[in-house]
Amino acid sequence: MVTRGRAALGVALTLVLALTTAGAEQRPVQRTMRFAERGTTLYVTTDVTNLFDKAAYDRLEDGLASTVVIRLWVYPSGKKTPVAFQLLHREVVYDLWGEIYEVAVTGPSGRRLYRVKYKAEALKLVTGLDQVAIAEVGAIPYEKNFELAIVAELNPVSAETMAEVRRWLSDGAGGGLDRGGSFFGSFVSVFVNLKVPDADRVLRLASQPFYRKRPKR
Amino acid sequence: MAAPAPPRYRLGVHRPGLFACALAALALAAAAPAHAQAPPPGVSPDLLDPEGSTGDVGTALGGAIGPVVTIEDIQIAGNRSTSTRLIERSLPFRRGDQLRVSDPRLARARWKLLALGYFREVDLALRRGTRHGQVIVAVVVAERGTVALNRLWFGTSAVAPWWLGADVGDRNFLGSGLALGGGAAYASAGAIVGARPQWAGELRLSAPALRGTRWGAHGAITGQHGSEPYRVSGPPGSGEAADLRAFGYRRLGVRGGPAYTLSSLSSVVADLRVEAIDAAVPIAPTRQLPDGRVTAIDLGLRRGDSRVVSVGLGYTRDNRPDPALPHQGTRVEVAGELGTSLLGGSYDFAVLLGRYDRFWPLTHKSAFGLRLAGGTVIGDAPRFDRIHIGDVDRMVAPRVMGMTTALTAPLDLLGTDNADTVYGEVGGSVTVEYVYQWWRRPHRIYGGDLFVAAGAWTLATTDELRLRDRGAFAALPVDLVLDVGLRIDTEIGVFEFSLANALGRVPRW
């Protein structure tokens, strides 16, 4: 009975620990952004520089490619379905021998290549959102509140790579005596468990609510 | 006349309360799937999920940039126990290779090393080589503990008042890349005539990649000193020790064979198994039925010494991005085994087992899962190779390293005749599962999923199907599996707390 009581206590403690950690998911950071309308398109100006911490910034000169993928959604306030979506892709690599940074910026207007001398310039190119088209104005009715959500990822990882990295988790014990149990059963095991994130770093931003003012006649 | 002023975008922050509401609304909105606009061609619709990763989008939208370089050298640091050669073999490039610095092979190298399961951290960087255009790839690894507790057995029942066992393994034994593992279990003897304490042990060794190739090898030695209970009288499902007998047996076996990695997510494995069995099976075991009739019973083993010699083949494919808390992806596993007297065995039999798990994301927080598992045993298979009730019904205690430690009758929710079901030749289960993502975080307790599962299991002997005096449904024990619980993925392992698991450990008798 004592053993059972201790086991129950252990389970209860684990559950309590789990419950107290629940809800600690990443929430979007509020950011004031600038919006502008030109012609039939709505543009935003902001940046995702916080995606890079010091280590990530230093890694820009390691000679390997760094990839930044930025997704933008325009939501009507209080609604769950976005009215517009935009995808941006930036890549930067340092040429060790040429001592320059090559940056590729891909977005709705196509792909542009830049060569810059300094790391700070490269960072600005891959994280800056300068007059980026986010929606057609037809999707943004007058006098209604909208918000812009941004998710930026540094070096995102594909689902297949994730599966490969964590595949050993489900390899099982491979035993001979309990083959049936291993084959049919689900697994529970204790080990030093490496959790590989979907990306090196993720930044979630949310804009202030904004609206289009109806033009005066 | 002046042109009308262009519309201005103003802060919509009228009051703090509204601001908070808007933020909350945005958080809610960001948590919803979005399908308002199709993503660019060639890019997965999953991109529209704010909680999902963009995954392959880098490959889809990126292009080759940066100079072409020649790898002059590969320098590895940080590995205290893992051999440098083993790490080099796992890299997708070699010295002398020419490639562009944005080549996916360079980006993939980090993941290839992490996929070994030996390292906590892997960092790659390029440095200038001795000549223009040549680079040195610097790899810095941080090793992690590779010892795992794979399984833990404990419980109590009338057959075994207590049992305890564990299976542990090291995926990187002495830094060699070899996986060494083993288990041991002990079960005390209950008040059943013929019962004795049971123990079992196992030692395994495997090499996932021989000399960096796709070929691997594995081997295991197993031993068992067991006591198998069977019913001699009383009604089906009775828990009286007087209605049971047990016979002792010993098993000593080896198994081993090659493995081949078909792709990063799939592999095949072949097995040769040789096992000696010494069983003190009664000469003519019988059972007295409640109506007074006496029938012979099949205990599934030769009396005295016998051998099992078999060959097996298995295939596994698992593309679930997160096997611990799956929300998408498929796992397929098929295994066949053929035992024959042509190879010197005492038993002619064939076993075919299959398993299929698939998860479909419903929203970014919930998923629907389908789990199918089943198999058939043909011929004169030894008792241990037949399908056990614990294999198909997760609400009863499973075997402990092949030993029977409980004869718990399964719950009879459908009123089918299943109380006597322990071993069978045809069996399986189908379960549907609803999974709700409770939380995800990057450290310590990574995530938790609540799940509700429902399904059905069946297990029957060939005789029950062939020689039946009733309808197929009545002759084929079928019943329900119900489960609800919490799965937790943590820094120290993966755990599942579920109703079915608890039921399997309750000494119903």
Structural summary, described in words:
Chain A is about 20% helix and about 40% strand. By secondary structure, chain A is an alpha+beta fold. Chain A has a domain at about 25-160 and about 195-210. In chain A, strands 1-11-9-4-5-6-7 form a seven-stranded mixed sheet, with helices on one face. The model of chain A is unreliable at about 15-25 (pLDDT under 50). Chain B is built from eight helices and 24 strands. Chain B has two domains: about 65-145, membrane protein fhac (Ubiquitin-like (UB roll)), CATH 3.10.20; about 145-505, membrane protein fhac: a member of the omp85/tpsb transporter family (Porin, Beta Barrel). The chains are: A alpha+beta (about 220), B mainly beta (about 500). Chains A and B meet through helix 1, strand 2, strand 4, strand 5 and strand 6 of A and strand 1, helix 1, helix 2, helix 4 and strand 4 of B. Strand 12 of chain A pairs antiparallel with strand 1 of chain B, so a sheet runs across the interface.
Query: In terms of per-residue confidence, which ranges of chain A show pLDDT below 50 for 5 or more consecutive residues?
Result: 17-25
The structure class of chain B reads: mainly beta
Beta-strand fraction estimate of chain B: over 45%
- Give the total of beta strands of chain A: 12
Q: Looking at CATH, which topology of the largest domain in chain B would you report?
A: Porin
Helix content of chain A: 10-25%
* Amino- and carboxy-terminal Cα gap of chain B: 95 Å
Describe the global form of chain A.
globular
Number of domains of chain B: 2
Trace the largest sheet of chain A across and list its strands. Answer: 1-11-9-4-5-6-7
Please, how many helices of chain A? 5
